[in-house]
Write a structure and sequence with these properties.
Distance between the termini: 51 Å
Number of strands: 0
Helix content: over 70%
Number of domains: 1
Length: about 90
């Protein structure tokens, strides 16, 4: 295994772990910030998977890689701005 492949795998694993922990925390507490952050990290995870495909099979997926990231960030911004809880 080459060093970039190991780094990309670690990035994907970290994003998946963070997404899992955030969404599990949302299930327990129903705090909306955990939901939106978890969905954002799901987008980061999908980006890392597409980066692995891009690197391993030499496909140019640079445009497609940005779609899950932008979608995840858009969900986070939506949750922070329009769905913020006022207490």
């Amino acid at each position: 295994m080459t060093m970039p492949l190991v780094v990309y795998l670690l990035c994907a694993a970290t994003s998946a772990a963070v997404a899992f922990l955030l969404l599990r925390g949302y299930q327990r507490t129903r705090a909306s910030l955990l939901l939106w952050s978890g969905l954002c990290f799901v987008g980061f995870f999908l980006n890392a998977l597409l980066l692995l495909v891009d690197y391993r099979w030499y496909q140019d997926l640079s445009v497609w890689r940005s779609v899950p990231t932008v979608a995840g960030l858009a969900l986070l911004i939506y949750g922070l701005v329009w769905r913020s809880e006022t207490r």
